[in-house]
Amino acid sequence: MSSPKVDLAISLVQNLIRSGEIKPGDRLPNETEFSAQLGVSRNSLREAVRAMSAMKILEARQGDGTYVSGLDPTQMIETLRFAVDVSGPEAVLWFLEIRILMELHTTAIAAARRTKADLDRLKKCHMAMVRAEDTDTLLKKDSEFHHIIAETTKNPIMASLLNVVSAPALRARIWRNRLTESATNNLRIEHEAVLNCIEAQDVEGAKYAMYAHVSGVQSWVRNNPDFFSKNGGDNEADTAPEAAR
Known about the structure:
Arc Repressor Mutant, subunit A; mainly alpha; 2 domains; 2 strands; 245 residues
């Protein structure tokens, strides 16, 4: 349900959280008491709680009531994934533009700050990609490679946002691999170029190599809007590991 009354109930609960009157981990009053406190109907409050639970703001525990979640921003950002997954070609291009900006930033940080441990993880992931014998494994390792780079920022919100906006890129890459056999080889070559620049701590070279890699997906979507629309509900995107999507 979406209505002004439900929106009001959501706003009132959010105001209580912002003011600190109810805090992460707090149990909300029972429905009758809380609706009276807020001055909204029980139905409106019930729908507001459902919506805020979907947004990871509240957590309904069966038989125990409703609690304010830990308000982990990385978890709440994940709720954007549905908007990404159902987007048409134009919106996907917008998300890909955001992805490119973020990828260039995280890659620059990786090249400047990477530790030996970071580099070892990237090399191990790339080697698994080189040895991959099927497309699913290749694409999982591709996602993992980008996730490792994002983790070098030590900014979990950055990594979470990048995971979300990368979802359409993953689907597009799956389709591109179906259409061109050379794409899998290009993927390995492009990753190796990024890896070499990060190892050499060549910041500008790493950014250039990453742009050459991710912009190809954007160009493919732009050139194949009809194909993308036709296959927008492809479930093969679910083959990506949860942490790296």
